[in-house]
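Lab meeting prep.
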Amino acid sequence: MPAGADHEREFLGLDPAVVVPLVACPISAALWLWYETRVSNPVVDLATSLHRQVLLTNIAAVLAGFAMFTQNMLTPQLLQADENTGYGLGSSAFVTGLALAPAGFMMMVLSPAASRLSTRHGPKTTLLAGLVITAFGYATAALMTPGVWQLAVGAGVNGAGVGLAYSAMPTLVMNAVPESETAAATGLNTLMRTIGTSSSSAVLAMLLTTVTIGTAAGAAPAESAFHLGFGMGAASALAALFVAAFLRTGNRNDGGARIGAGLAERRIGTGLAER
């Protein structure tokens, strides 16, 4: 095959390393769904996972995961970018780590506050508050001129928001499912966050390699790509906020009791059918 054809195939994203996972993923997901709906004791009970409270929390988890990883993806790139780009700060890996440290510090500091807020006002309030803070942090980052201290403050604000949001999600899920399903339901919620972070990594990598400028050292991400990326983080947090607004507030296992009764009826019916 001519070299030009190889280049065109790569440009179109037809490399086997890209195509095979794209094809295999929906096929394997469909097979998994088919199997899980036909066994008497599924790993993840889809009836529980499709319950409104659980489903909305998982959708919010994907969007919050996207927002969370935006900070981890863009801030190091921006701090360590070459100064010849006109916006790069040329910081070392050590300085970059220090600039990101406030995010983890704020998550740790706010853990007790998140627990008290959820106990007093409910986990939905905690989730909404965290998403508002995260959206504000990214919106500010998208509009300001980047600097080391600005990015460090932004990391702290986003860490505070993500810490509050993440702390509320397991409680929301556990309050909506029967006790026998808590492990599977919270595990699925964690998986949803991972899907969000993985999606964020892929989308932002595509953004940084597409919106570029020419420098003496070659192509580099344009400053506008970083502003757009932070804007995407804000948009993702706002989308999660919109989804979370439809969550119900209720007492521990109110929803779980209802789902549990439905699961018991279904399993009794399945047992009678097998006999």
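Slide two material, second protein:
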Amino acid sequence: MTRTPVDVLIRRLDPQVPIPAYAHPGDAGTDLVTTEPAELAPGERTVLPTGVAIALPDGYAAFVHPRSGLAARCGVAMVNAPGTIDAGYRGEIKVIVVNLDPRESVRFERYDRVAQLVVQQVEKVRFHEVAELPGSARAEGGLGSTGGHAAWTGTEGGNGYASVGSDREGQ
């Protein structure tokens, strides 16, 4: 099924910055670049400007996702992944990155790809307060309640937190 692309208005705040584009057919995200060089020592974080601002149609939001290559090769993560760009926001898109590598600094040059932008349709909701929620198969299980990791030993008190790294109860 071929979909009609959603029209998004974009303003270049830096005249040389490339318009975000899909690297490959079928990609969900377009590449965002930084317009300023930066160097992050281990554990440091910074806010990288992208040189673009957008106007999304009502009913849409854009989500700034990290790049897997930066994470795998350099230990770079986004502090607030994904970052949310609401339809009403008109300011510059910025990316908050952190260097998680314990030993090596990471350097960004002007126009390095630093994140991906994914535009999605979002629903408006109305909240209805109730005294009790209806039951479900999952109930209150969360935060690792399905296991799947060698350190998993179960939950304590049904709070969804794993009891990891101790043979003694309560530790």
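Talking points for slide two:
The helical segments are 68-74.
The first strand starts at residue 9 and ends at 12.
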